[in-house]
Every structure is written in structure tokens, then in C-alpha cells.
Design goal:
Elements: E1 6-18, E2 25-38, E3 43-47, H1 54-61, E4 69-74, E5 77-78, H2 84-90, E6 94-97, H3 111-121, H4 127-140, H5 157-168, E7 175-179, H6 187-204, E8 207-211, H7 215-221, E9 224-229, E10 232-238, H8 239-244, H9 249-256, H10 297-301, E11 307-310, E12 313-315
Parallel strand pairs: 3-8, 3-9, 6-7, 7-8
Antiparallel strand pairs: 1-2, 1-4, 4-5, 9-10, 10-12, 11-12
Helix pairs in contact: 3-4, 3-5, 4-5, 5-6
Length: 321
């Protein structure tokens, strides 16, 4: 069996914080021991409520922020042991598409400079070859070569995101972290961008870690789905399996909350008690137990492991067999 392109084991990121008015310092466990695999050419959808650690995890796998602990392998290389110069070279093979198509583009730079910046940083080709590469990338993302001379404010939100995608692909990476790339766009534009990402993946063999809130988008683009809750991955499965037969109580509640055109076809509602716990003081054992309608005493005493419950289907719940 071929090893995954990306492997995370026990990956964690803890942020020290100081409470207001001179309170005692605490720690936010934004990512708390995550195991994750991403195969070459695969799209892994990463979903969960706001604040669960999805974006932090996306930045961790790129080493844009340094992890507190764990292991991170990219194509067999341990990224966390690489010296700065070797890590810089490894960055040619990984990239990111940001959520905000406005804030992620420098308004003082032309489109040619924005897309060509990675090429300049890594001294790729001559100036003429870089211009040709920028023109080719613009064509690939559905823009025209003459757009290279314009500035970000001259484009719509969807066009700006296409520019961001072109920049992310400038060095032909093997993996791209898509950090909610369509959440700031109109619904009709969302479909265009998602279809563009799928076409580029088929053409270039890209692997996507696709962070999203919208489960309908994830259902369309993902091959597998990982569900996060309060810094931990609680379930992973192929998308068809997860949407048809979720195992973890939180996944069931998440899917049941999605509006559907025909209410008769909706999943039965899952009653959840209380509010989401603070990441400064998460519950012991299973982080979901304070809201779970099925919680038992063991859930407070023992942290459930993310284990295989069916072929290629893993869940972190004591009650799932």
C-alpha cells in the first residue's frame, strides 16, 4: 500500500493566554493530538463548528505556525526536523488558498507581481518565462492574460479568488490547503470556484486539505471527510459513508442541522444540551460528553481513541462498536 502524501500523528498546538484583570494564565488547546492522513491526488474535507481548530490545523500542516507536539510527515520526510533552508525548499511542494479573497492580495501589487512572486522567490526561469507562466496560470483559472497588468481592486470577489488560486499553483505544488476558499463568495460563484478546483486537481494531480463550514460543498468536492470538535478529530470516513451512516454522536448532530429542501428526507434531529465548552477549560475525557445525549460515566474518565470501527471508517467514541 502506498504511504500517504501527508501524515500527522498526535499533532498539537497549544496557545498560552492570560485571562483579563490579572487572572491566572491558561492554555488554549486549539489542536489537541490530531491524527490525519492525506493521499496524493485526494481531497480531504475538514469540517466542524467555528473555533474547533480547523484553520489552525491547516496552518500546522504547512508549518506556518509551529506545533506544540506531534509528528508531521510529508512524502516520507519529517517536516518538524527540517532546518530552515530545507524547509524553505519543501515549501515549493505545498501551498495555501486563503479564505478572504480581498485581504489575501496586496492592493499595491499588480496581478502579474502577485502570481509571479513565488516564481521570483525561488528564481524560477527568466523574466520572460515567468511572464509566460503567469499568463498560462491566468488562463487556467478562467482569466485572461491581459488581466496581469491590473490591480486587485479592479476585480470582483470571485475573480480575486481565482487570482489567489493561480498564485497557489505557481510552483506546481503537490498539496494545497484550501482554507474555506468559497465561504466569502456568493453561492453561484462558489459553484464556479469549486468546479475550477476540481478541474485543476484532475489536471495537476493535486491533493487538497479542504477546510469548510458548508457541508454541501464538502459533499461535492471531498473524497474523505474528517470531523473536528474542540481541537480533536472525532470521525473520519469516505464522504458517501459519512453522510449516509455517521457513527459519532457529534457527526450525527452536525449532519442533522443541515437544512434540506424536503424535510421528510432530513436526518432525525439530535438533541444537544448546553453550550460549546471553552477551549481554555475543555471537559475531561471526551470533549463532547457535556453535550452528548448518550454520555456515560466512562466518557468523563477516559479519552476515546480515534479507532477503526469499519473498513476505512474511524470514530472516537466509547459507545461506537
Amino acid at each position: 500500500m502506498t504511504a500517504p502524501l501527508l501524515q500527522a500523528r498526535g499533532l498539537a498546538k497549544h496557545f498560552p493566554v492570560r485571562r483579563s484583570l490579572g487572572g491566572a494564565p491558561g492554555t488554549v488547546k486549539a489542536v489537541d493530538g490530531v491524527d490525519l492522513d492525506l493521499a496524493a491526488g485526494e481531497t480531504l474535507g475538514l469540517v466542524g463548528e467555528s473555533g474547533c481548530g480547523k484553520t489552525t490545523l491547516g496552518r500546522l500542516v504547512l508549518r506556518l505556525i509551529e506545533p506544540t507536539g506531534g509528528k508531521l510527515l510529508f512524502d516520507g520526510t519529517d517536516l518538524l526536523t527540517l532546518p530552515p533552508e530545507r524547509m524553505r525548499l519543501m515549501r515549493r511542494r505545498m501551498s495555501i488558498i486563503f479564505q478572504d479573497p480581498v485581504g489575501s492580495l496586496d492592493p499595491r501589487m499588480s496581478v502579474a507581481d502577485i502570481i509571479g512572486e513565488p516564481l521570483r522567490i525561488f528564481s524560477e526561469g527568466s523574466r520572460a518565462e515567468r511572464h509566460a507562466r503567469v499568463a498560462d496560470l491566468l488562463s487556467r483559472v478562467g482569466l485572461r492574460p491581459e488581466h496581469a497588468a491590473r490591480f486587485p481592486h479592479e476585480f470582483s470577489g470571485g475573480q480575486r479568488q481565482r487570482i489567489g488560486i493561480a498564485r497557489a499553483l505557481a510552483l506546481s505544488p503537490a498539496m494545497v490547503v484550501c482554507d474555506e476558499p468559497v465561504s466569502a463568495l456568493d453561492v453561484s460563484i462558489q459553484a464556479q470556484i469549486v468546479n475550477l478546483l476540481m478541474d485543476l486537481q484532475a489536471e495537476m494531480g493535486l491533493a487538497y486539505l479542504f477546510v469548510a463550514h458548508d457541508l454541501s460543498v464538502v459533499r461535492h468536492i471531498a473524497d474523505r471527510v474528517a470531523v473536528m470538535y474542540l481541537g480533536r478529530v472525532v470521525e473520519t470516513a469516505p464522504k458517501r459513508v459519512l453522510f449516509a451512516a455517521p457513527k459519532h454522536p457529534y457527526t450525527k448532530a452536525l449532519l442533522a442541522a443541515v437544512p434540506v429542501p424536503n424535510p421528510r428526507g432530513a436526518m432525525p434531529p439530535v438533541p444537544l444540551a448546553g453550550e460549546i465548552p471553552s477551549p481554555l477549560d475543555p471537559p475531561s475525557g471526551c470533549h463532547f460528553r457535556t453535550r452528548c445525549p448518550l454520555a456515560i460515566a466512562r466518557c468523563a474518565e477516559e479519552t476515546p481513541l480515534l479507532r477503526e470501527v469499519e473498513a476505512d471508517h474511524r470514530a472516537a467514541c466509547h459507545l461506537v462498536t
